[in-house]
Here is the input.
Amino acid sequence: MTFLERTRRNYAGSDRLMPGGIRLFTHEGVRAVDQAIRFLRRARPLPPLALSPGLCSAAADYCREQAGGAAGHHGCDGSDPGSRITGYGVVAQDWAENIAYGQRSARAIVMALIIDDGVRGRGHRRNIFNRNYNAVGAADGPHARYGTVCSIDFVSGCAEGRFVRAESKFANSF
Here is the structure.
């Protein structure tokens, strides 16, 4: 039995029973988990992604920006993931960003993004399993509203530019 199949047993209707007796409301309940299990059973292995220092820096900056409780893919300055990525010298043909809130481990983050409860089209799952992406960067941090935030940036046709910022734009603001 897989980890996801074991997790399935923790659902009661739309509630997921968490450790410590905490009930977490879900939009779709076990239906989203069952769909993820079926998807994973049919999935073909993917080549490994290259870890990009520039993408990790962009993701870390965005986690720091959201620490106060902001949510979503657009920064307070109007930036989108593409502009944040290119700000670190990463040149890409295509990009995507996954953000997970409130998860406490790498496994929980990935599991939540693959299940993609309540997300029409399962966009986070599609990003993770997109064969066109060849590089990734990720970071996590505290979040005032959800406890934690994790940002994961994916790109295709990735090249690190000659210039990758040595420190983040938020380094002196904390």
Notes: Residues 53-66 form the longest helix (14 residues). Helices lie at 3-8, 30-42, 53-66, 81-86, 106-115, 123-128. The beta strands are 11-12, 15-17, 23-25, 50-51, 90-91, 94-101, 135-143, 147-156, 159-160. The first strand starts at residue 11 and ends at 12.
